[in-house]
Amino acid sequence: MNTASQKPSVLKISWVKSSLIVGLTFLAIGLILIFFFKTFGVGKMQLFLESKNFVREYGFVGVFFATILAGTVVPLGSPALVVAAASFGLDPALLAFTAAVGFTIGMTINYFLACNLGRPFLVKKMGVEEFEAVTALWNRWGWILYVVFGAIPILPVELLALVCGLLKARIQTFLVLSFMPRLAVFTVLAYLGEALGEWIGLI
Q: What is the phi-psi region of residue 155: left when phi exceeds 0, alpha when psi lies from -120 to 50, beta otherwise?
């Protein structure tokens, strides 16, 4: 039997495929909404003016708690949240840092859940085949896989955090490689959101 055909593939894992589909769908919807907002000048509408004031008042706290939840596999779409918050005028650098800290806390919760609850918890979360596939990928690529997932917003890196916890990966490395890629991603997205907000007329 050809052993090469048995090598695990990221795209064969259902939760990776579903994350890509959902991410690309939201990207398409987001682009449509952006052009809609620009065309109809919604930034000057009273509703958006009130929303902007609300976001500026409570936005950092909201982003912080939302990204904690997003890091614990609750599908809140933290990249889209960062873009949206920045488009309403939140400081991009502080926003990116806040989101990265929140997301890392969420990932750390996943790590310790898996560390304490063990294999049955992950099998229940992913399914046996998915668990074996992602474990095989981890054994092959290790931290490289984790960094790649962390650096691509639509990939579910939070599920890899569960594997890290199960395997009791070095916690210091886990924290650094959870925080730094997401900080870079959120920084890019925050400044993109700021540019979009200015273009649409929200800022």
A: beta
